[in-house]
Design goal:
Elements lengths: L6 E8 L3 H12 L4 E4 L16 E2 L4 H5 L6 H11 L6 H21 L4 E5 L9 E4 L2 H15 L4 E3 L2 E9 L2 E9 L5 E11 L8 H7 L9 E2 L8 H8 L4 E2 L4 E4 L2 E3 L9 E5 L5 E3 L17 H6 L6 E5 L8 E2 L14 H10 L3 E4 L2 H8 L3 H17 L22 E6 L2 E5 L2 E2 L6 E3 L5 E7 L22 H18 L9
Parallel strand pairs: 1-2, 1-9, 2-6, 9-23, 10-20
Antiparallel strand pairs: 3-5, 4-5, 7-8, 8-9, 11-21, 12-20, 13-14, 14-17, 15-16, 16-19, 18-19, 22-23
Helix pairs in contact: 1-5, 1-12, 3-4, 4-12, 10-11
Amino acid sequence: MCAEKGIQTDVLVVGSGAVGVAAGIEAREAGAEVIVLEKEDHLGGAAAISGGGCCIVDTPLQRDKGITDSPDLAFDDWISWGEGSADEEWVRFYVEQSCQELYEWAKERGVEWIGLNHQEGNTVARWHRPEGGGPGLWHALHATAVSRGIGSWVTGTAVKSLIIEDGRAVGVRTENVKTGESQDYFAKATVMGTGGFASNLDMVLKNRPDLRPHRILEGSHVGAKGDGHHVVQEAGGMLTHMGDIWFYSFAIPDHRDPNGRRGLVIRGMADAVWVNMQGHRFHNEELSGGGSGSKAIMAQEPAQCWAIIDGTMREHVTVGDPYYQQEGTAIRDVEKVAELLEISPYISRGSTLEGLAKDMNISVDTLKETIDRYNSHIDSGVEEDPDFGRLLAGRQKIEQAPFYALNYGPLARKNFGGVKTDLRCQVLDKNYQIIDRLFAAGELAGMAGGHINGKKGLEGTMLGPCLFSGRIAGAWAAQAAGFGRGFGT
């Protein structure tokens, strides 16, 4: 430490999530000394609470399962799904590099890819599941980063501003979250990987004022407040596509949040039946993604629905929040999930469908008619229900007490816009000129480049590009600091 100049390092990484571990590993492997700063009192960011899936193209795992994929096919799916708003240059860069530079790279650094899911919008299955989900992936990469020699992981430290001298980023000014004490960190290159703003409802609604009439929930990592966006913008960086926000449909308000803003992501309800607040089905429940399920819910009046399950399904319910998981894993805490089902004011209950309808405050006759009709489709043996086209093979009826109805509503999960960068993750200003020695990656940069996904994402196109762009930023930051030759050279 230097009393006059603050703490010195070669590469400074701000944020300890996907970008933090990927950029840190890349810079350290190039030979640079690295310090990672984290605002929260714990490491991991959104990556460590995510499902962990990455959209990766033409991998050994796909080929082992007989799946034929290609960068061209993935590119077409991606661009079509993004509704004309995706950054085609970044998409092409990612789909052509993802197998070698993400799948194989992560595997060599402790991540085990164990499964594939076929997600909406994809011609073939390419959502790759890591062992242990997001927590497992992040912990594996963090362990690698530590083994490479990154020992400085500074928590409880919020970056308040970038230090710019002669047009060049030379460090950051920080504040201790608990004490308010200031500290400057100086570096030869700085990587900003502070995440998104989906846990800042005011910022979400500022960029999407059309949503103000609705109940919108915050639902990303608790630290995803958009701090990095403000810091980079104040330093001259350009923000783009900020209104492209990804909403989850399968979420209820968190009754433990004193501010009434946060939501809980609910998974494991494959057999749930969705009804609107009047008790009618309105959508194919198989299509639950941000580009389908959320859109369908937002078209209701009000923009909410009930997801109904019976007693045979409750054991599969999982909650995407650390409080409801065994520490450091994606494994459900059985007792806490069971407690949520019994005490949340946003979950209705009944020992009969009549009792459930009364607790939901909707017509008993309407709910019974809706569920009876759905069950009759399963009994009839038809391949798909004639009302909304839901595939019924393997689906369970809603028939065993007790019954539950979860009050779903749109939850802001990811932002698909952010800091504009070039293909080296160098931050660009409003004139598309780079800000020297300043790099941005991950959700701060709309997952990569500013808007790699467009208006919709294929799933796995969030965490995957965050890791990929983190690697790129770390490699080029190290090169700018005098270490290594950059990414892919």
